[in-house]
Structures are given as C-alpha cells and as structure tokens.
Amino acid sequence: MKQYCLLIVLILSEASILKAQYQGANNSSMGVLGVATNQLFSVNINPANLGLLDSSQIGIHIKKMNFAGRSLETGLQVATPFKKINLGVGIYNFGNSFYNFGKISVALAKPLDNKQGIGISVDFFREFVYLNSDANAVNATIGYYYKINEKLQLGASIRQVFYRSDERLERIYSQISGLGSLGLSYRAMPSLTFTGELRSDEINTMGLGLGMQLQKDKMALLMGFSNQENLINVGLRLPIGPVHWTVAYAFRQQLGSSVQSSLIYLW
Strand, helix or coil at 247? Predict the structure, then answer.
C-alpha cells in the first residue's frame, strides 16, 4: 500500500517538477526565476539568454528532495558562443525507484544587436513510472530578451508540447504546453539586483516569483519566493577560482524541503 501511495504523490507532484525546468541552484534560490537572468541554467526557461553568454561554460547541479522517497535531481549544461550564434546542450534526470524523468535539451540563440536577442530550444523527454509503461514527449521553447537600459532587462518565453507518445499523460503534459513566462530584472545598484516573473502553465492559473541578489565581489546572497508552490528559497554563491558554486535550500508547504548545489565553470 505504501508503494502505491508514493506513486500517486509522484504523479501529482510531477507538474511542479516540470515547471522548474532544471534552472540550477542560482535561479532556484531566487524563486525559480530564469526568464530574465543571465545564468547558464536559465537557458532552460528562456533559450534567448544563451546569447548573453560571452564565454564557454559548463555546469552541473545536484538536488536532493526530502519527499517522494527522497528523490534526486541531476543535470549537466554546456554552452559555447560562436561568431554569429550560440549553442547550448543539457542533460537532466529526476527520480527514484518508482519514478524517473529525463530530458535532453538542445538550444540555439542569436543576438540581434547589442540590446536584444532571440533563441529556440528543443527538449526530448523520457518518463518511466513504476508498474506502468514508458512515455516520451518533445517540446519547443522560443525566447526573447531586451536590455531596456543598463539596469533593466526584460525576458519572455513560450513553450509548446507538440508530441507525446502516451495519452495517459495528457493532463500532465498539457500543464506545460503553452507555458508562458514574462520577467524583469532590475539592477538597483552594483551590489543589489531584483527580479520578478509572471508565468502561466495551466488555464486560468498565474504564478508570481520574486527574487533578490545581494552581491559583494563575486559572492552573493540569494532569496526568493514563488506563490505557485508556496515556495521559499535561500541560497549562497561562492567563487572558487573560475568556478561559481551555489548552494540553495527550498521549502514547499505541501512537499517539504530540498537542498540543491550547482557548479559552473567558465573558460
């Protein structure tokens, strides 16, 4: 009986997992925001942000969730700029012995000028549920960013699922089909940045995320809130040579807590 109850919890919580889209510890610490931030892992919610990276980067993240059988989430993201276009590739996995969800993502971005850029990513999903069959899906995300001025940056993206192999997951995948995000990042001063984001992933459902980054040199304290999951996050980013290490803690009212760590290497 315990196994079946756990399976139900996993399926019900899957929509929240898909919403996060593996944004890494930095963006997760700021309320799962990424559409208007320039971090490597924000490419997963807005592929246009890939065009803002001026160096090759590789990042890994590990997230331990203290619910649903103590599930583990892992990810690897690589991005590199070329003369006219930037390329990003990501591999992600979430799960435990009852449920497993994986994704391979390929993104392309092109800066249009020194203020704006566009991008597109294609995600290939694979899903396995205990005592049930595998399922696959493919979606695409189109993103855009615009630097209003030195302090303000606007980001927007929309995602659409255009293939799924199993109709039993129609309700779950419909929650990320057509997902839209609109975000604004404001650098109030060199050491203080505020970020806000509106997003929709179901009919008549709107989410609001608010985040703050307080930075000194390359160290940063990050805090955020998301009303969709009653999610409160806090994180700390530390420099270790060319590596940026971020540790984040999150508490969800219904699902409990999680700890996440990301490492990003720039060269």
Answer: strand
Residue 71: per-residue pLDDT: 75
Tokens of 158: 């929309």
CA distances 33 to 8, 129, 223, Å, are: 28, 28, 11
C-beta separation of 264 from 22 below 8 A? no
Question: Within the chain, how many helices (H) and strands (E) appear?
Answer: 3, 14
State the average pLDDT for the chain.
Answer: 77
Write out the H or E segment, with its range, that includes residue 172: helix 170-174
Q: Where are the domains of the chain?
A: 2-266
Q: Which residues of the chain have pLDDT under 50?
A: 1-20, 203-204
Q: How far apart are CA 74 and CA 247, in angstroms?
A: 14
User: pTM for the full model?
Assistant: 0.80
The CATH T-level fold of domain 2-266 is: Porin (2.40.160)
| Tally of residues, the chain | 267
Question: Does residue 45 contact residue 176 with C-beta atoms inside 8 Å?
Answer: no
In eight-state DSSP terms, residue 59 is E
The reported pLDDT for the residue numbered 148 is 93
Quick one: which H or E segment has residue 257?
Answer: strand 256-266
